[in-house]
Amino acid sequence: EVIILAIPFFAAEDVLPTLAEQIADRIVIDATNPLNDDWSPRLLGQENSAAEEIARLLPDAKLVKAFNTIFADIMSESGFDRHGQKATLFIAGDDEVAVATVAGLASDMGLLPVRTGALTTARYLEAMAHLNIAIAVGQSGGTNAAFVYHRA
After folding, report:
1. What gap in Å lies between CA 27 and CA 102, rounded to an integer?
2. Based on the number of CB atoms within 10 Å of its own CB, is 28 exposed (0-12), middle (13-18) or buried (19 or more)?
């Protein structure tokens, strides 16, 4: 029912067109981030994102941006518990049913889903991931970290 796309973004252009027909009408979760080989941001312009590029490659899929701000090191039930608060899973997408499905999946996994709006908001999620990586890798902050979005 749901496909999670977890390949390097730079490979998407070669791989996805060959799969587009097979995954038409399916929910595809884009967990990619546009990165260079040295983990620095691959800048796509302020009016574009990796998710929007992937959506163009998979025009009949129900693309949802999610999991791109979650480090692999915390991908467990105990890792999602951030001192009594749930790690946040930000979700962007244009198909409400697909977004709701991903939000339900996130909740079932122990994450706090936060819907950010249309797929164009993936631009911000990818920038958040770039910041997260810059702190973790560039400043030696480590990857046992997560966003916790607290609503008062």
Report:
1. 9
2. buried
Given phi > 0 = left and psi -120 to 50 = alpha, else beta, which region is 112?
beta
Q: Judge whether 133 and 39 are in contact, CB under 8 Å.
A: yes
Would you say residue 77 has pLDDT above 80? yes
Residue linked to tokens 């198909």: 95
Taking the C-alpha atoms of residue 70 and residue 130, their distance in angstroms, rounded to an integer, is 11
Amino acid sitting at position 74: I
CA separation for the pair 49, 56 (Å, rounded): 11
| pTM for this predicted structure | 0.92
104, 68 Cβ separation under 8 angstroms: no
Give the β-pairing of 81-82 and 85-86: antiparallel
